[in-house]
Amino acid sequence: MELIINLAINGIAMGMLYFLIACGLTLIFGLMDVLNFSHGALFAWGAYVGIWAFDVTESFVIGLIAAILAGLILGLLTELIIIKPVYGNHIQQILITLGFMLVLAELLKVVFGPDIMAASRPGYLDGSWSFGDVTVIKYRAFIILIGLLIFIGIMLVLKFTKVGLIVRAGVMNKEMVQALGINIRLVFIGVFMVGSALAALGGALFVPNSGVAYAEMGMEFGIYAFIVVIIGGMGSVPGSLVAALLVGLSGSFMGYYYSDLSMVVTMILMFIILIFRPQGLFQVSGVSNK
Amino acid sequence: MIKKIQRSTWIYLAVAFLLVLLPFFKDERWFLFLMIQVFTFGIFAMSYDLLLGYTGIISFGHAMFFGIGAYSVGIILDRMEASYTSLLIGILVAALLGGLVSFIAGILTLKLKNHFYAMLTLALASMFLFIAEKWRSVTHGSDGFTFRLPELPGPLEDHRNITIYMFCLVMMVLIFFGLRRLTESPLGKILVAIRENEGRVESLGFRIMPYKVIISVISGVVASFAGVLYAISIRFVGTNVFAIDVTLDALLMTIIGGVGTLVGPIIGAGIIEFAHHYLSSLADVHWIFERWIILFGIVYILAVIFFPAGIVGTIKAKLHKRKHRKIEAKQQNADKMAS
Questions:
Q1: Alpha-carbon distance B100 to B118, whole Å?
Q2: ipTM above 0.90?
Q3: What is the pLDDT of residues B41-83, one digit of tens each?
Q4: Closest C-alpha among B14, B41, B49, B53 to residue B274
Q5: pTM exceeding the 0.90 threshold for the entire prediction
Q6: Most buried residue, A208, B65, B92, B298, by CB count within 10 Å?
């Protein structure tokens, strides 16, 4: 029982990290039909910048804020330099973002050195609580808490603010939103930056848990984020949360029993969705996958 | 039109003939090896062009077919005796597996948007890399393994490198003409039509899915054959064949050479392979050359934005324009005469 609870907590914590990457990806896709293959690189950048700022300032919170800032800046640059020049051409968009992913991952090695970077947890999040037989690692609980807060925050913004209204309307029909005199490009840049910042935050939150950061982690987590988005349904934020938890939990349990098969099981999950429900678990009206 | 095709065929055959003569003038090991790389990657890039250039399908996991081919032939030659039978079995298994994987990827995602095929192939390729690293008893993990090739008959054995050079060259030429025939066939025309406007092809009564799946399977088979040739030429298989770098190479070669031209990717393969070679020797000069993926990535991004037609595409467009201008000038002259 103790084992199951621990694996579940681990899986949910990983799921929250997947969610942080995937929700930006899914919103950007829903709003502008752009699939950003370089999104995963921002996760790695967030991780490195987070470690670096934590080391320099010795404040974990400042590390997280630095990662968010890095995500915002890189998101803006990606939108202006990479996505904008090839607007309206899907093939070029897909091709170019993959190239940018590789460049961003290599730049990490240039800026921070090619070696693996070690990460540590702040003292107040180190250790664990025990409830009877069950021990809960504090840091994982912290990740789950942050993930939930961000999910609730996003849902509140989407449901109850004007910006959220515009974003939701844009997902359904962006021409109509434009016709009403709203500059959808500004909204899109904003969503792009916020999505990138969330991915970077996810990276900064992940590394104290794993202990190490390396440049290729961007690609690894990016692939998991794609799987999450496919399972959850393109454009759906709640969908990406459910799918992320599903992927996180299945990876955690499978990883314990047969660690080599954890990735395969995630793939099988994606195959099943693609065969029986290609639109994903949660379908958003106005977003088509055909 | 027929005359035109024939002229280009003669040019290609002449170039192929020059390439046949080349090793008799320059037979250093590194050079032969580099040319063999050009031929194998030329085949690989052509298979990529079938998807990207002719049908408008984007694959980010093309390395997986390359790797499937290399591992199939490597494992079978490693496990069985090094005979021609096992080599043949290896090639057949490679083609079958490559075709099967691309068939599965195709039926799962080709009815959806472009993004899905790109995502799925990227994910599948990373899964194959993962399997190659973990299934140590068969793949020897990240160390890779060497294997023996069957003995060549008599004098050919003494000039093994030249023999492999010729074999790869002949294969590339055959595959090139085969694929060109394919793209000029009615099937090829439908593929181009699908790339240009899917909805219209559908409204003309064609079912799109089967065509896309067929081309994805053909491309997978050809790509895994390129992997077979690669493994044979270096007699070693390692996990690097599944790496994203291989896919990036195919993308670069196809885009720089010219999408949708078939001959472009071969030229691209030549450029990229020689660039690899000289860049890695520049690593002593400045460390940035060691990080060649940055350079290639930037070149790739710039090419996608500013040079989407590639070398061959740009030349073709120029020729076309000039021809057009000539015809226009003729017509104007005729108009003047008439008035």
A1: 17
A2: no
A3: 999 999 999 999 888 888 998 999 999 999 999 999 888 877 8
A4: B41
A5: no
A6: B65
What is the CATH number for A78?
A: 1.10.3470
| Residues 107-166, chain A, touching B (beta carbon < 8 A) | 107, 109-110
| A230/B contact by beta carbon, under 8 A | yes
> Nearest Cβ partner of A103 from B122, B130, B294?
B294
Q: Per-residue confidence at A290, pLDDT binned at 50, 70, 90?
A: low
- Angle at Cα B88 formed by Cα B84 and Cα B90, nearest 5°? 115
Beta-bridge mates of residue A130: A135
Buried-exposed string B37-70: b where 16+ CB fall within 10 A, e elsewhere: bbbbbbbbbbbbbbbbbbbbbbbbbbbbbbbbbb
B154 is written with which tokens? 């008599």
Cβ of B304 under 8 Å from any chain A Cβ?
Answer: yes
Please tell me the distance from the alpha carbon of residue A207 to that of residue A213, in angstroms, as a whole number: 6
Q: What is the 8-class DSSP label of residue B171?
A: H
Other CB atoms within 10 A of residue B28 CB: 10
Alpha carbon of residue B219 to chain centroid: 9
Count up the domains in chain A and report the number: 1
**CA–CA gap between residue B115 and residue B60 (Å, rounded):** 10
The CATH architecture assigned to B27-308 reads Orthogonal Bundle (1.10)
Domain ranges for chain B, please list them: 27-308, 309-339
User: Is the Cβ–Cβ distance between A127 and A244 less than 8 Å?
Assistant: no
Count Cα atoms within 13 angstroms, Cβ side, for A123. Answer: 2
In a domain, A290, yes or no: no
**B152 φ, ψ (degrees, to nearest 5):** -85, 155
**Looking at the predicted structure, is the pLDDT value of residue A49 above 90?**
yes
Residue at B148: amino acid letter: R
Residue B6 above 70 pLDDT? no
Q: Is B300 on the interface with A (CB under 8 A)?
A: yes
Q: Spell out which residues of chain B touch residue A91, defining contact as CB-CB under 8 Å.
A: 52, 56, 58, 114
- CA B130, CA B127: separation in Å to the nearest integer? 5
> Is residue A47 in a domain?
yes
Are A207 and A215 contacting, i.e. CB atoms less than 8 angstroms apart? no
Tell if the CB–CB gap between A106 and B293 is shorter than 8 Å.
yes
DSSP chain A: -HHHHHHHHHHHHHHHHHHHHHHHHHHHHHHH----TTHHHHHHHHHHHHHHHHHHH--HHHHHHHHHHHHHHHHHHIIIIIIGGGTT-HHHHHHHHHHHHHHHHHHHHHHH-SS-EE----GGG-SEEEETTEEEEHHHHHHHHHHHHHHHHHHHHHHHSHHHHHHHHHHH-HHHHHHTT--HHHHHHHHHHHHHHHHHHHHHHHHHHHSEE-TTHHHHHHHHHHHHHHHH-TT-HHHHHHHHHHHHHHHHHHHHH-GGGHHHHHHHHHHHHHHH-TT-SS--TT----
- Using DSSP's 3-state secondary structure scheme, residue B237 falls into strand
Q: Please say if the pLDDT value at position A122 is more than 90.
A: no
Q: Nearest C-alpha of chain B: how many angstroms from A263?
A: 7
Task: Tell whether A167 is covered by a domain.
Answer: yes
Residue A97 domain-assigned (yes or no): yes
| Domain interval for residue A261 | 2-276
- Long-range contact list for B206-212, CB < 8 A, 24+ apart? B209/B107, B209/B110, B209/B111, B211/B55, B211/B187, B212/B55, B212/B57, B212/B106, B212/B110
Using CB atoms, which residue from A94, A106, A289 is nearest to B118? A94
